[in-house]
Amino acid sequence: MKVQIHLIRHGRTAGNGEHRYVGRTDEPLCAEGAEALADVKAPEAELLFVSPMRRCVETARILYPQLEAVSVPELSECDFGAFEGKNWQELSGDPDYQRWIDSNGTLPFPGGESRDGFCGRCCAGFLRVMERIRAAGCRKAAVVAHGGTIMAVMDAWSEPHRDYYGWQIGNGEWITVRTQTEEWGADPKLIPIR
User: Fold this and answer.
1) Which end of the chain lies in a sparser environment, N or C, as judged by fewer CB atoms within 10 Å?
2) Spatial distance between the Cα atoms of 86 and 177, rounded to a whole number of angstroms
């Protein structure tokens, strides 16, 4: 069964507005973020999956008040370690930050996750979502998660492929994908259609 999935980035938070690394901080939506979502016509979904972080749960409630959200812990945002809660201006001059920038974001965050570890965790969670979708016979689902989570999933399975940073989207935006084949197994091949 081919499936359509909407990968939705949570609404704006105060930290997003200040361009901070907001990963493990369980920050709520800011008033402007919640107001912006109230005007959004959410794409149709039969099942709803969320990162357990407050900003995702709040976004899901606003966009899909009629659906019960299934929490998937593996879809949580990256642990930014020592960079958590800071922005690039505050980190400017930090040698660890410069090394991370020079690596194109491939070095682990000091005291946090590596990109490989983060992407592996997100992809494992997404495969769990896919199994729930298959078991329910669902044709349209929504996943409310984080920008990094969406980038990890799309980097792993987009068809045609774009790399991790090629999938950045704004707060409250989404990418709609469909599976390429009836049986996807551990390689769902996600084709962007929006």
Assistant:
1) C
2) 32
